[in-house]
Design a protein that fits this description.
This protein has 232 residues and is mainly alpha-helical. Helices cover 76% and strands 2% of the residues. The chain is built from ten helices and two strands. The longest helix has 34 residues, at 97-130.
Amino acid sequence: MIESPPALAVFFIELRKSIRQLFISIGLLTLLIFFLSPQMLEVIQAHLAEKLYFFSVAGPFLAHVKLALFGALYALMPWIITVLLKAVGTPFKVAGSQVFFFSFFTCLLFYAGTLFCYFITLPFGINFLLGFGSEELKPVISIGRFVNFVTLFILAFGVIFELPILMVFTAKIGLVTRSFFSRHRRYALLLIAIVAALLTPTPDVVNMLLMGGPLYLLYEAGIIILLIMRIP
């Protein structure tokens, strides 16, 4: 009798089928977006900051490369998510319409999280931080640090908004049960508070609630979705 390969091996086999094309596409799109990155930076700067500075010769160039890479990842995220979900789902017999379902709602939640971060959380956080400036203490923001700060936070919010999908997927493949999530609400709330404290740009309660509040609602939404789908 031939034994089936372990789940991790199946995951990497499936991932290899698309990873090369994915990396090539990311590289080409990064190159294309690089020529549009000055306009992108201008829009982001107008929304979140006043003046940016650089302290090395290569600073602006590297900042535009990072912004272009972020733009490529952001645009190709539906493909990236589909590739990852196919690779993860194959060992657990999740395929076809189920992969489409998970991919669609994963993309939807990812973009919802990034937009929430860009339009609500980041403006509050940056205004709070810059509010400590004065006539004697002028803020001087490095273009490189600004791009790192903004892009990482936007991507982080996109990822953490996938909480309901993670809950549904883990319950569907049998790793946990719906009752597990229901019984451990208090621990989930504590973990969400810790994540919000670590990831929000400022330590004040308002910004923590702007992240922790939606996350807890997403947690409850995950439980409701499991109930509707009749996943035990």
